[in-house]
Amino acid sequence: MARSITFATIISFMLLSFNMYGQHITADTAISHDSVVTEKAHNPEGGFKPGDFMLEHILDSHEWHIITVGHTHVSIPLPVILYSKVSGLHFFMSSKFHHGTESYKNFYIAEEGPNKGKIVEKVQSEHGEKEIVPLDLSITKVVFSLLLSCILLLVVFISIARKYTREGIKAPSGLQSALEPMILFVVDDIAKPSLGEKKYEKFLPYLLTIFFFIWFNNMLGLIPIFPGGANVTGNIAVTMVLAAFTFVITTINGNKHYWEEIYNAPGVPWWLKFPIPLMPFIEILGLIIKPVVLMVRLFANITAGHLIILAFVSLIFIFAQISPALGYGVSVLSTAFALFMSLLELLVALIQAYVFTLLSAIYFSMATAEHH
Amino acid sequence: MELVTPNVGTIFWMLLFFSLVLLILKKFAWKPILNSLKNREKSIEDALKSAEHAKEEMQKLKQDNEKILADARRERDFLMKEAREMKDKIIADAQELAKVEAKKLIDAAKQNIDNEKRNAINEIKMQIANLSIEIAEKIIREKLDEEKQKQIVEKMLDEINLS
């Protein structure tokens, strides 16, 4: 019973979300003749640009746009923190930019050029006006969402940890029983088989943290409205930091045998190592490629998932431009496909968390393997 | 291009947030959770082991009980047999004793009867001797004729017979 209610809620949320995308676009096209507001999702002629529409949802931004009704944009302003070599440290809310239409203290969001979408500063120099890019430490949509998910992770796991401490060896209940299988999955099916009984405990806290971090953020990214919907694990900076953690832990824990395999791999003909160190070169390349692959895999999978769903939604508006009736007709099919993709993404969210954690565990086990 | 270019600000915050989450969860979440899971696993293992132990103990106890029961049964049979034998013996003894006693009584009675008889015979003999002496006295005192003597003797003899 409870399960079917949850399922119904998820479905209705999804339908609602497409509705919202719909409102967003129709509102934009309706106000497109208004010269004050220029949205990225449409060009001045009023046509719908699916590429820009999809990128707007995938990319980061300095405000959290929720909905546009008629002429009003509903969005949450986020803090902008800038450090400029010219004018020093600045701290203000992104609402000062009026959705990217105005400049504030010589700062504005570039609309074209190599810095498109970034905050740039207009400075005077001997050659006249010049655009420079300040160091941008703003709490952007992705960073804000990251903060929310980190708080969620801390609240969830510290609360169940307290329950574990309080209830001792009693059978789990509530949230604890929902997450315990996942914790045991990481412990028994990822950490133990790849690292072995002796070493797995050392890496377990990190493996559990990345698993739940990636999983939670993937799932939150699938919720189309406010607290979710930001493309956190589909942001290359986020996946880069995660991969960097795995790389650093692997390198720190690398034992003598691990480095020997890299610099002087046994069982390889000597002429592959001397005078041209071909094998060491390939091995060192491999060291770097491993985390890069981790970074790209997570980023690409999550971004692609979001893109496909957005593409199905875009189809509705592309056809609606041709004729409204066609738009309504296509919407049925598009919604069905987007729904299917959303459900698939629920699975992908878990699989990507699993793959990242498993590969990290395997890299750690390679770094700590004993000579055999 | 923006999509695949990591943003410095995002990297900075991600590094900060993720490190904090990792450290806090490691200390306040994973440690107690994993400890508790390990304890639970251990207690389940212990419980299973002790159940197995109890089962063995039970088996042993059952065997002991059966042995005790068998012993008790044997003991009972033995006691019953002994009691029966004792009863038989007591009855037999009593009968023997009674027989002996009866025989003794009968013997004593016979002895008595014999004694009485002998005494009686002796008394009769004595009486006869006395009577004879009396008769002889009377005969001598009377000094009667032969006829009369004969008559008296006969009369005396009749009297003796009668007595």
Features:
heterodimer, A: 372 residues, mainly alpha, three-stranded antiparallel β-sheet, 8 helices, 62% helix, globular, B: 163 residues, 2 helices, 93% helix, 0% strand
Describe the structure.
The complex is a heterodimer of chains A (372) and B (163). Chain A has 372 residues and is mainly α. Chain A has 8 helices and 8 strands, in the order ααββββββββαααααα. Chain B is mostly helical and 163 residues long. Chain B has one domain. In chain B, 93% of the residues lie in helices and 0% in strands. Chain B contains 2 helices and no strands. Chain B has helices at 8-142, 146-162. In chain B, helix 1 (8-142) runs antiparallel to helix 2 (146-162). The N and C termini of chain B lie far apart (176 Å). The chains are: A mainly alpha (372), B mainly alpha (163). Chains A and B meet through strand 8, helix 3, helix 4 and helix 5 of A and helix 1 of B.
Please write out the topology.
The complex is a heterodimer of chains A (372) and B (163).
Chain A: H1 2-30, H2 50-58, E1 63-69, E2 72-77, E3 79-84, E4 88-93, E5 107-109, E6 119-125, E7 128-132, E8 135-136, H3 141-167, H4 175-222, H5 236-253, H6 256-263, H7 278-322, H8 324-368
Antiparallel strand pairs in A: 1-2, 3-4, 3-8, 5-6, 6-7
Chain B: H1 8-142, H2 146-162
In short:
With 372 residues, chain A is mostly helical. Helix content of chain A is 62%, strand content 11%. Chain A has eight helices and eight strands.
Number of strands of chain A: 8
User: What separation lies between the terminal Cα atoms of chain B?
Assistant: 176 Å
- The helix-strand sequence of chain B is HH
Largest sheet of chain A: 3 strands, antiparallel
- Within the largest sheet of chain A, what's the order of strands? 4-3-8
The amount of beta strand of chain A, in percent, is: 5-15%
Shape of chain B: rod-shaped
What sequence of helices (H) and strands (E) makes up the elements of chain A? HHEEEEEEEEHHHHHH
Number of helices of chain B: 2
Instruction: Kindly report the oligomeric state of this protein.
Output: heterodimer
How many strands, what sense, and barrel or not for the largest sheet of chain B? none
Averaging pLDDT over every residue of chain B, what do you get?
90
Protein chains sharing the most extensive interface:
A-B, 51 and 35 residues
Assign the structural class of chain B, choosing from mainly alpha, mainly beta, alpha/beta, alpha+beta, or little secondary structure: mainly alpha
Record field, number of beta strands of chain B: 0
